[in-house]
Design a protein that fits this description.
The mean pLDDT is 87. α6 packs parallel to α8, α7 crosses α12 and α8 packs across α12. The chain has 13 helices and no strands. It has two domains: 82 residues, no CATH class; 166 residues, Hypothetical protein af1432, CATH 1.10.3210. The protein is an all-alpha fold.
Length: 269
Amino acid sequence: MSSLDQIIAEVGRGELSFPTHADVAFRVRLALDDPDLHLSQATHLVEAEPLLAARVVAVANSVAFNRSGQQVSDVRSAVSRLGISFIRTLATALVMRQMTGRLQSPACRSLSERLWEHTAHVAALANVLAKRLVRPLADMALFAGMVHEVGGFYLISRTDAYPDLFAENGTLTPQAEPLIGQAVLKALAVPEEVVNAVEVHWLPQAPDFPPTSLGDLLSLANRLTPILSPLQNPELQVLPDDPEVASLLTEILDESGEEMGELAYALRY
């Protein structure tokens, strides 16, 4: 049985193995899901995880979120500026980063960095597309973009136990990605609507255009990004074959390029 088959079997039995240093961020992430959470409570939760607290303040002071140039130096002000919805996204991102934060293999650390760069760009792109095409989905599109490769991060996190995992084939098979991705999304308590969107992005067919659903937005962003996932088959980058669609997408990207770049930079850490 190959390493990948062994991990798939583990996941099928509900045996997910997360690094212990991700535990605190994981608990904070789950606590932030409380729909009745107040700003003061969110602030205390963020302060409980020093890495998250530092990142929240840094992002609040980034160009993407600080147009006025007014710097904040405390977590409460940063949480207020970013909003609890965005804090959830950053907390989820921290869990994913900590999955692969202590890898022994330089090659696997490099693989993780390349996957993270792709993830941040897709999240920013999905957010920008939603603002232009389906604005009510903008926040959720950002979150969906941040978690759409969570199965890949989980696999990379297991390479210390399975060092030959990516020895033969660096890409995820169409069968393995949904099995592992769905299990990790469930463990992270990702909302069903976002899980459904990630499942749509796994499908080989091009998304509908104009997009009407979160799945269409995520799939479109994943296919539009020039920063490909190191685990994804390039053949899955097929886009709608329509000159008018291509022209409109080019216009959106040109007009939103600066905003998208600033957001991707803020997310990529």
